[in-house]
Amino acid sequence: MGLGELLIKDPEQDWIPEDVYYQIKSGQSHCVLGLTDGVIDGFFVGQVLKDGSFFAWVGYCQRDVDSGLKILDSFAKQLNCKKIKFATGRSGWARLAKRHGYKPTIWVKEL
Question: What does CATH list as the number for 3-99?
């Protein structure tokens, strides 16, 4: 599965793979790869927001999501970020995010 396939899975997002590529290429966002024995087994892409927090646009972890989130924490700290933010419509993230200390900040009601 390619990056483009991962990004277009969520129809609520208003960005496209080309946006992500441009942001990385122009230095406005970061792409961090996770490697095991020289093979990519995960990644995340995100940027530092004006409020000093790190916003993770997209991420993928083939094996251990908990370890992937620890790497995200460490990377954000290296950038002197005090918060990490992400948004998802996937219900399984509620448990995982809570276990790692995330708190919901946005609630949406469909009308």
Answer: 3.40.630.30
